[in-house]
Amino acid sequence: MLHIRPATAADVPTILRFIRELALYEREPAAVVATEAGLLRDGFTEPVRFRCLIAELAAGAEEIAAPAGFALFFTSYSTWRGHHGIRLEDLYVTPELRGKGIGKALLARVAQIAVAEGCPRLEWDVLDWNQPAIDVYQRLGANILTEWRIMRLSGDALSTLAAHST
Which domains, and CATH codes, for the chain? Predict the structure, then answer.
């Protein structure tokens, strides 16, 4: 039986484990610098910077549900639409439980939240080599925005620009 619920502060160790597993899958395990303290600060104290759902799976009513995956998301804003939306940062299902509809159920729950909150869109990124995920997303009706490129400043480049005076 699949159960999806909002994450609590007690889930932070599981969330961090899922983040590390996702980074390993995405071939960037050394890139994770997130800590439990940071996740607690940003997801479970004011101001809340992200929300998270935990998927739990139990084989039967008597079995204790085990964490199977998560979806971490936050509010974005579209100036063109003049409205907020939802940006999905991470969607992850443990490898041994993939193919059981857990990822689709997590994504559907985030979509339900978006619709309930009046968001005109839900956005996320997918690596260009992750064809199984791309195929699933396209079957759900998602569009790949090929004309846009993600730009990122971090580390020294971010500090250098921030220090620039006008």
Answer: 2-163 (3.40.630.30)
